């Protein structure tokens, strides 16, 4: 057997083994697909279309609520916008977000810090935690506001066995269930 053929077969077997060993949570998530899955807000398409699509279908506003989706406006580096679910309210100017495809392409981040840095305290401009820095990113991002879903998750849920789990725990449980969801919308941010 030719050495090249043997090397090619070894590489194929090795790569198949790696794919089989990858956990279900290793799925590549787009922000819009993930936000829809965990928030219950049934909007499809790129993140930059969510605010307009929500008009007349969902309540919208400028105050954070647990389970609401924060809709980011497009920018030069973020052409299709971004969407992220509010998982906790820390103060009137700080929330924790759960979202995908922000610090690292396709990855989910839970309970990351977002701070309102707008001049009018209206959440129209935010800074968001950025993993490579281990702190808030250096960029500020314009937002349209919050989309409130009628079926959005509450701060805690009662599981069938009576156990309560945080919104983040419930969101993490949906990852496996959503493994077959189509990939649409959103891009990575920051440099």
Biggest sheet statistics: 6 strands, antiparallel, barrel
Number of helix segments? Answer: 4
Low-confidence stretches: 10-22, 152-191
* Strand/helix succession: HHHEEEEEEEEEEH
Structural class: alpha+beta
Average predicted confidence as pLDDT? 77
Brief rundown of the structure:
This protein is of the alpha+beta class.
What do you see in this structure?
By secondary structure, the chain is α+β, with helices and mostly antiparallel strands. 23% of the residues lie in helices and 29% in strands. The chain has helices at 3-21, 31-39, 50-54, 167-177, and strands at residues 59-61, 69-72, 82-91, 94-100, 108-116, 125-130, 135-136, 141-148, 156-158, 164-166.
Give the key terms:
single chain, 191 residues, alpha+beta, two-stranded antiparallel ribbon
List the helices and strands and how they pair.
Elements lengths: L2 H19 L9 H9 L10 H5 L4 E3 L7 E4 L9 E10 L2 E7 L7 E9 L8 E6 L4 E2 L4 E8 L7 E3 L5 E3 H11 L14
Antiparallel strand pairs: 1-8, 2-3, 2-8, 3-4, 4-5, 5-6, 6-7, 6-8, 9-10
Helix pairs in contact: 2-4
């Amino acid at each position: 057997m030719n050495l090249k053929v043997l090397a090619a077969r070894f590489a194929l077997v090795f790569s198949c083994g790696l794919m089989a060993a990858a956990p279900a949570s290793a799925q590549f998530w787009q922000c819009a697909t993930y936000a829809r899955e965990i928030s219950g807000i049934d909007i499809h398409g790129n993140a930059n279309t969510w605010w307009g699509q929500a008009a007349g279908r969902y309540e919208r506003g400028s105050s954070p609520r647990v389970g609401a989706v924060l809709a980011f406006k497009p920018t030069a580096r973020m052409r299709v916008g971004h969407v992220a679910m509010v998982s906790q309210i820390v103060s009137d100017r700080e929330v924790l977000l759960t979202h995908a495809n922000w610090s690292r392409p396709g990855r989910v981040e839970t309970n990351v810090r977002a701070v309102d840095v707008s001049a009018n305290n209206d959440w129209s401009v935010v800074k968001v935690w950025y993993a490579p820095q281990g702190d808030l990113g250096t960029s500020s991002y314009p937002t349209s506001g919050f989309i409130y879903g009628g079926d959005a998750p509450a701060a805690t849920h009662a599981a069938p066995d009576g156990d309560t789990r945080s919104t983040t725990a419930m969101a993490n449980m949906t990852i496996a269930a959503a493994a077959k969801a189509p990939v649409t919308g959103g891009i990575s941010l920051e440099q």
